[in-house]
Design goal:
The protein has 15 helices and 15 strands. It has helices spanning 3-11, 15-39, 49-53, 74-84, 131-141, 146-159, 174-184, 187-194, 235-250, 267-277, 293-313, 357-364, 392-399, 407-415, 431-438, and strands spanning 44-48, 62-68, 89-95, 99-105, 108-116, 201-203, 217-221, 224-228, 280-287, 318-326, 329-336, 344-351, 370-377, 380-386, 418-421.
């Protein structure tokens, strides 16, 4: 039995699990139909997602959509959709483009999502309206044996850390994995093809693109040529996919599908590693707003970028950084190549002979911040001025209120923002995050 056969025996649902899924789906659909009839709502519930296509893994969630006529008002669609979700246990209202319900039924995690009934993607009124068209497309083209090839690609992508189009991952969605197998035939066919992928690659199935796209990887949605199915895939996740494919094809291993979990280093060991590396350390923590991950993670990225840009502007050089949720905290970790600077900073002005040279002299000749100059260096005026802050820690203390961190994070930061520098940043609660920052091994290499 080769590696892929062994993996399939672990990820393919058993006959018993399939029977349980079928029974739960049947019961959910029956209850939804009864509720719709009782309330007089014209809508049709249907099974969607990987279960509908037969490409699901063991332990899957079940996606049920309820399609309403296009003449139903958006507000009514949302209200009715949430009301239908009340059949789920421990149901939670989540919000993407419009609200839906996630909960449990018969031991399975289930989502009940309202959408509009359409027959062509050009008629769509919300992002999820294409879903039944995706189901029909895959079911109409998948060949014998390809469902298992899709399962392999999904499990492999999850193992190497690139599975999921959500904002937290920025990787390969289930539908994208399905289309790639339809395009290249097999799991290995996708991996082999990926070795030739480069930034900006455009992959077509049945239809050419309806417009241009700027993302690193472009896979044209065969039911909507104006959509890139791979729009969520970041450049780093694309590069990781290609590297992992090369590594796997050279030496297949179960580790790519089921990597060993990361073992966080103990704080004394973290201190030892940090001392060996010799960089300055800073941890910034903000209470995590109680919003969905798809709303929160773009703000975390925005805040992370704002901090990095602030350090760069003031010449504090960051060698590595990451952000992570730790319990109810949003934590930003930075390792600096340069975390402290001299008081003096050289500021370059215009060439001596340009018209605005005098304005530069007028500004700096009697300025309280001027340490030396102005004087000529080459053909330009320059001046040595005093920095407002000389440490990365001091910079954040002085300027974080001026940064744009994202609507919800801005509010949370104003309630509480904590800074920890040096070894104080190496807290036990942050041990996993620091370990991931210091340990550069890929998941399958652990």
């Amino acid at each position: 039995m080769n590696v892929e056969e062994q993996i399939l025996s672990r990820i393919r649902p058993t006959a018993n699990e399939e029977a349980r899924i079928e029974a739960v789906v049947r019961e959910i659909l029956e209850r939804l139909r009864a509720t719709l009839q009782k309330r007089g709502w014209d809508a049709k519930p249907f099974l969607a997602g990987s279960v509908a296509k037969g490409t699901h893994l063991t332990g899957t969630e079940i996606d049920v959509f309820v399609a309403f006529p296009p003449d139903v008002a958006r507000e009514d669609l949302e209200t009715r959709g949430l009301a239908l979700g009340e059949i789920l246990e421990r149901g939670a209202h989540l919000y993407a483009e419009h609200p839906y319900t996630r909960g449990w039924y018969g031991g399975f995690e289930v989502e009940i999502v309202p959408c509009y009934r359409i027959t062509d993607a050009s008629q769509r009124m919300s992002a999820v309206d294409r879903t039944p068209l995706h189901v029909d497309y895959v079911l109409g083209r998948v060949k014998d044996g390809q469902t298992d090839e899709i399962r392999l690609l999904k499990a492999w992508a999850e193992g190497i850390g690139v599975y999921g189009a959500e904002a937290k991952i920025l990787g390969f969605s289930g539908y994208l994995c399905e289309l790639l197998v339809l395009k290249y035939g097999t799991f290995r066919g996708v991996l082999e093809a990926s070795l030739a992928w480069r930034r900006g690659l455009v992959v077509e199935l049945d239809r050419p693109p309806g417009r241009s796209f700027e993302e690193p990887l472009v896979v044209i949605d065969p039911v909507d040529p104006n959509r890139n199915v791979a729009s969520a895939v970041s450049l780093e996740q694309l590069a990781t996919f290609v590297h992992a494919a090369r590594e796997y094809l050279q030496k297949p291993s179960e580790r790519f599908f089921f990597p060993r979990p990361l073992k966080p280093l103990a704080v004394p060991r973290l201190r030892s590693v940090a001392k060996q590396r010799g960089g300055g350390l800073l941890a910034i923590s903000i209470p995590a707003p109680a919003i969905t991950e798809d709303v929160l993670y773009p703000q975390l990225r925005k805040a992370h970028r704002a901090f990095l840009e602030a350090f760069h502007r003031e010449e504090f050089r960051v060698s590595d950084s990451r952000f992570v949720l730790v319990g109810k905290e949003a934590v930003f970790l930075f390792e600096f190549a340069v975390a402290a600077l001299p008081r003096v900073s050289r500021h370059e002005g215009p060439p001596v002979w340009v018209k605005n040279a005098q304005a530069f002299l007028d500004k700096w000749e009697r300025n309280a911040r001027t340490i030396a100059g102005p004087f000529i260096q080459g053909d330009r005026w320059v001046v040595d001025v005093a920095r407002d802050v000389t440490t990365a820690l001091g910079l954040v203390k002085a300027t974080w209120r001026e940064l744009s961190l994202g609507k919800d994070l801005d509010k949370a930061a104003r309630r509480s923002l904590r800074l920890r520098f040096g070894t104080d940043a190496l807290r036990a609660t942050y041990a996993e995050a620091w370990t991931r920052l210091f340990d550069k091994r890929f998941p399958w290499e652990r």
